[in-house]
Amino acid sequence: MVIKEKLTMTNKRIFFLGLIISLFNIFLFQSFAQGPSADPRQFTITGKVIDNELEVPLEYATISIVNVSDPKDLTGGVTNANGEFSIDVKKGTYNIIVEFISYESKTYNNRVIDSDLDLGTIKLGLGSENLDEVVVRAETTQVDVRLDKKIYNIGKDLTTAGGTVSDALNNVPSVTVDIDGGISLRGNENVRILINGKPSAMAGFGDTNVLNQLPADAIERVEVITSPSARYDAEGTAGILNIILRQKETLGFNGSLNLNAGTPANAGVTANLNYRTENFNLFTTTGVRYFDAPGGGYFDTRYFEDSETNYSRIYEDRDIERLNRNFNSNFGMEYFINQKSSITGSIFYRGGEDVDITTNNSDYFMRDEGLALETTRRERQSENDKSWQFSLNYINNFNNEGHKLTADFQYENDSETQFTTIGENILSNPGEIDFALRDENINTTEDQKEYLLQADYVLPFNEDSQFEAGYRGNFENEITNYTLFQEDEQTGELVFNDTLSNNFDYTENVNALYTQYGTKLGNLSFLLGLRLENTQLKGKIESELSDDELEEAFGIPIDTDFDNNYLGLFPTVNLIYEIAEEENITLGYNRRINRPRGWFINPFPSRSSTNNVFQGNPNLRPAFSNAFDLGYLKRWEKLTLTSSVYYQHETDSFERIEDNIAGTNVVRTIPVNLSSNDRTGAELGILYNPADWLRLNSSFNFFKFKTEGEYNGRNYDAENTSWFARFSSKVSLPAKIDWQTNAFYRGASEEVQGTRDGFLSIDLAFSKDIFNDNATLSLNVRDLLNSRKRQSYTITDTYERESEFQWRQGQNFTVSLIYRFNQQKRRQERRGSEDDFEEGEF
Q1: Distance between CA atoms of residues 794 and 718, nearest Å
Q2: Cα torsion through 49, 53, 54, 56, rounded to 10
Q3: How many structural domains comprise the chain?
Q4: 812-835 pLDDT, tens per residue?
Q5: Tag placement on the chain: N or C end, fewer CB within 10 Å?
Q6: Quick check: 27 and 56 in contact, CB under 8 A?
Q7: Are 781 and 753 in contact (CB under 8 A)?
């Protein structure tokens, strides 16, 4: 919808239903009322309907054409997404009425039609009786189902005021954000994150923690794409989350300022500014944020009697202090070359200075002797991160029926420098253990570059059929230089460690061609596509050690210079059957790929403590999946129901396996390819607005997966059944105060090597409009129960472990003030041309 702020979702559905009934009656009247015509020639009445103030098109405006000599002779139509209409009539004299709900209508009386008539641009203004009551901003998240996606238009979610994109995503059905910031879709972590339909530095090159730095109010809608069409990159076996950012289209200068502060230390300022003329549109979103996110947890590892370890038990208590300072800015301009084409350029920059201090207090127990040693390990890591992205988009609409060509170029660069100092001390040593203490200095630099080239061509054959083809090339290179200096036990000096120090040069190139065709046959619409992708994964490791020495040091064969290519076909099928205007069934099939990221392949271990390391696996292969999804949607006046069942079979699936490095106390986590993973699930979502003062939103997702495979001679077959649910209520109180409650529960689950406990998390928020509704003051508290913790149990051949981790400890209180200028709260910004982001629609 071109300006969805004019109607609530319910009003729009009622309007569409009424419109269809009206048109049906018109056609009936026309069929029975028309007699034989003396002049069978047809003439065409055309025009364009726009908003008088915003000068943006009005989609679904009604055009009624009444024969003056015979009022029963009716015909008409509605405008398209560009506000345009074209209606054929016979020769005669007609009254022409142009209407749009809550607007004043416009009438052209006694128009003689004996040739084609162009009414030009018709401007409609709001009816005076509707200025303050009909048009309101959407207050809750609404859902729209398309052939290959579900679109959640983010409403006024109070619990994310002053929050981040990750906070907003955590309120989207089917999506969960864990305590580490990792994003899952239907319980599957292999999700592809896109910004405005493309990979972006805003999403941190796949590091979803970056989404913790972007303000939530920058989001307009989130597209949950569980059955992606062929136009999308085949990456992501779980599917795609496409985050669409707000773009203001109001003429003139307008914007908003968002101030927030909270505890633990949390402060930020974000400005959204826009200036638009007839020829160009300038826009920027700029913000700074400072926050402290204390976290921590514990690891209680108990070694079995037949293990080759020196200790029977090691208990680690971990505290983390995080101090983050971030700046991000997106500035761009869209230039309208003519009415059919435009070019948009934008530059995004993000800079961060972070300091993390991790303290590990460890207790070592000897078998049958009790506590033998107490140590403390302090790690201080400072990080400077700079990312910038330049993007250029060109679009040319050959006509108003959807025939168009788009081209994109994008360049991104991310540079990160880390300096880490580690010191360890003995607090007590009753067992007189000979324990080596080594101070360490670590220098890590990462430089990542990525290029994107993309072209898409869309050719409609008629109103209901469309052909599309395109090319996309992603070219990514990441160079990681890791240098470790350790204290020499004899001299006490820091010396170069030639075993762990390395330089890893990793390249991922993906070239893809796709084509797809969609059409509508009665109530059935389908979209068939085929994508051809070639993936090149290439890496080169520079180390002081030979290949044999590396294998001996790390326990796995390591190819220090590899170049692997994978060519694959990825078919997609998406169907939607309209049972009624407010009811449909969808069916989707797609084949996907999961490519291992650089840090999953880098074999040099990273240590979170003396006894815990993560090590990449250069032998990882891409995983492939085939997925089926069957969905059902039904809308009533106050209730919307969405549901689906799904099945996915994945081969060479990634699993993180823990093991005990022989002869040591060190627990290593390493990703490996297991043979298969079968995932079955069902989800249910309900949006219910029983009254103007009460809105309810809930969803439930149940899933089961079965993993089969072995590693190092051990069988890792496992079955896991789990579920998660969320509930949100919003109550409008007197004095223009709104109260919102969000609750989320994640059920316990069986893992490949143990179990994970469930948890309940509750958020509360209150808001009040002030300054003549030009500003909104909000207060929210996240994790009211301080219960958002990951608690798990792991068992292997040599040890069992209980652990708990919390990324951000304690309740989080935030006060937020949003001030809008040259905007009215009842008008939400136009969300941009649907064609820009509704990829694959027809």
Answers
A1: 13
A2: 0
A3: 3
A4: 899 989 888 775 443 333 333 333
A5: N
A6: no
A7: no
Does residue 492 share a domain with residue 475?
yes
Do 272 and 253 meet the contact criterion of CB atoms below 8 Å apart?
no
Residue 199's domain comprises 142-245
Question: pLDDT tens digit string along 762-788?
Answer: 989 898 889 887 888 989 898 999 998
Unique residue bearing structure tokens 């994150």? 193
Q: How far is CA 467 from the centre of its chain?
A: 27
Point out the domain boundary residue: 223, 245, 267. Answer: 245
245-279 residues labelled b (16+ CB within 10 A) or e (exposed): bbbbbbbeebbbebbbbbeeebebebebbbbbeee
**How far apart are the C-alpha atoms of 260 and 778, rounded to whole Å?**
9
Give the list of residues 6+ apart from residue 562 with CB closer than 8 angstroms, or none.
537, 538, 539, 618
Q: Using CA atoms, how far apart are residues 531 and 515, in angstroms rounded to an integer? A: 7
Q: What is the largest CA-CA distance in the chain?
A: 113
- Those residues whose C-beta lies under 8 Å from the C-beta of residue 809, and which sit 6 or more positions away, are 294, 295, 296, 786
Tell me if 805 sits within 8 A of 29, measured CB to CB.
no
Does 136 map to a domain?
Answer: no
Same domain, 166 and 124: no
Dist. CA 584–CA 581, nearest whole Å: 8
Q: Evaluate the omega torsion of the peptide bond into residue 460 and state whether it is cis, within 30 degrees of 0.
A: no
Locate 761 and state its tokens. 């998390």
Same domain, 526 and 480: yes
Q: Nearest 5°: phi and psi at 615?
A: -130, 130
* CATH number for the domain harbouring residue 86: 2.60.40.1120
Structure-token pair, residue 54: 């915003």
Where residue 92 falls (left for φ over 0; alpha for ψ -120 to 50; beta otherwise) is left
**pTM given for the model:** 0.71
226-to-52, 655, 699 alpha-carbon distances in Å: 39, 21, 16
Q: Are residues 542 and 625 in the same domain?
A: yes
pLDDT per position as a tens digit, 279-307: 888 888 898 989 888 999 999 999 998 77
Q: Are strands 612-614 and 667-673 parallel, antiparallel or unpaired?
A: parallel
Closest CA to 838 of 220, 73, 238: 220
Is residue 137 included in any domain, yes or no? no
